[in-house]
Amino acid sequence: MCGIVGIYLKTKKFEKNLGKMLSGMLNNMESRGPDSAGFAIYKNSDKKEYKYSLCINNLDFTKFKKDISKKIRNLKLNQYSDHIIVKTPEIPKKFIKFINKEFPEVSIVGYGRSIEIFKQVGNPKDVVKKFNLENFSGTHGIGHTRMATESAITTDGSHPYSTGEDECLVHNGSLSNHNNLRRELKKKGNTFTSENDTEVAAGYVSNSLANNNSLKNTLVSGLKDLDGFYTFIAGTRKGFAVVRDEIACKPAVIAETKNYVAIASEFQAMAHLPDVNNAKIFEPEPGIVYSWGN
Amino acid sequence: MKLDLKKLKLRKVNEQLQSIDRKINDRNFTIINPEGNHAVCAGLTEELNINIKGHVGYYCAGMNQKANITIEGNVGTGVAENMMSGKVHVKGNASQSAGATAHGGLLIIDGDASSRCGISMKGVDIVVKGSVGHMSGFMSQAGNLVVCGDAGEALGDSLYETNIYIKGKVKSLGADCVEKKMDKKHIKKLNLLLQGANIKNQKAESFKRYGSAKKLYNFKIDNISNY
What we know:
The complex is a heterodimer of chains A (294) and B (227). With 294 residues, chain A is α+β, with helices and mostly antiparallel strands. Chain A folds into 2 domains: 3-44 and 123-292, Glutamine Phosphoribosylpyrophosphate, subunit 1, domain 1 (4-Layer Sandwich); 46-113, 2-Layer Sandwich (Alpha-Beta Plaits), CATH 3.30.70. Helix content of chain A is 26%, strand content 30%. Chain A has 7 helices and 15 strands. In chain A, the strands form 3 sheets. In chain A, strands 7-2-8-1-13-12-14 form a 7-stranded antiparallel sheet, with helices on one face. In chain A, strands 4-5-3-6 form a 4-stranded antiparallel sheet, with helices on one face. A 4-stranded antiparallel sheet of chain A has the order 9-10-11-15. In chain A, helix 5 (178-187) packs parallel to helix 6 (197-210). Chain B has 227 residues and is mainly β. Chain B has a single domain (2-215), classed as Pectate Lyase C-like. Chain B has 2 helices and 11 strands. Chain B is elongated and about 60 Å long. Chains A and B meet through loops of A and loops of B.
């Protein structure tokens, strides 16, 4: 099953409430995905620094802080339970290599100038609380509640998947050609950390974006290349896009007001949003890409 | 009587509506704050008038018998699925599989219905004032599906005895679904259906009728070599 949610703010009115709005949406999607949950929050980007979202798993934070500070001087760390947001001018290629080598037990959940990603196994309500999502502000956010089908219930198996700078993807559904596609993408230089089908879709999107295709065109070509059932929300620094496969068994509903666009698997996820009863509410049509901000 | 789903549990509300004492005359209910809940008013068996103020989730008014249910909002998947009798009126849009497998009664949708509207319908009358999505009327067996707007791909695929009336464009017809002649009896029936849904600006003569070519009813012996 799985539940997916997203919110894109068209004006600044609700920027401070973004976390609160998104946490309500995730909490209401518990019934669709009680195994794990995760979310990505986009904030205004800092041109000088990169942000790396790390999950330190069982590592002790104080020790990690001490160890990493010895090797990299220019960095700031913010702890959210077992996730750490590292802010540093170090470029991704170098920093990711460094983390993988020096801290093999640490997972890199995502990175970019604007994105922060948190995901963990457990009931969505607990996950949301653990990372204090309610206190986050930002311009747009994407979330996922997981009912595992394709791979094990682990942090690596949770969504959102981020396979490129400031990119992320959440998925309700399952892909049937992910093994083939993974092999093809590996040949093109993509790396994967799990056996999960959604990570392959995220890799597909990253690969296409890296080749200077627009997000919209990427998802349009994905309709041919990705075989299976899906509703995707793909996020970038500027906004997000939504697409459903042409059979459209996997649900989605969009509510648009003058201040925001919200998308969710079910309306009940957004019933608490401000002024939602006066919103323009519609279902995204099968095989049509809808995008905001991009 | 007003029932507030913000204060009352959904199961309590449904239980109350499912076990109405036959001797009671107060049969009018208003449900407020449905907030996208699933299975609101499912399994009702008595003559009740229910007005739901807001958007609901999946399977609203499922298995309905006798009750007259109006939803002042949008509905999720499978509204009035397996309805036996009564009337369900959606004032907004409906998600997929509206009226699925329904045996009887009347389902009116003021807005659009998405894919698979009337899938496997078995006798219900469905009137959609807007358009319907792909695979509508799939394997439909009996009853009438009326669409004042357009129909998506593969309309009426593998259908049996359902009559489908479409005013607008049909993107494509499904297997074994063909356009059929509108006889006097069809125009009469369609007029009654339009009247029943309080549609005054549409003429029955301007609709096209679709039904089964009945080529899938029996196995064709000429195809034996394919198996």
